[in-house]
Amino acid sequence: MSTIIIAVIVFGLVGFVVYNRFFKKGHAAASCHECSEVGCPLVQQQKAIKALTKDKTAQ
Q: Which domain of life is it from (predicted)?
């Protein structure tokens, strides 16, 4: 009986984490594009590369 209770708790926690991580809408920073105002390093690098390529093509 205790095995069933522990299994329900473990699977419930796993389901909760998966739901919050992948399926819940409206939570903060769902993708890296939303954290661009905060200072995501990937977005900053992408913006710098775009700026450099614009400068080179404009010349």
A: Bacteria
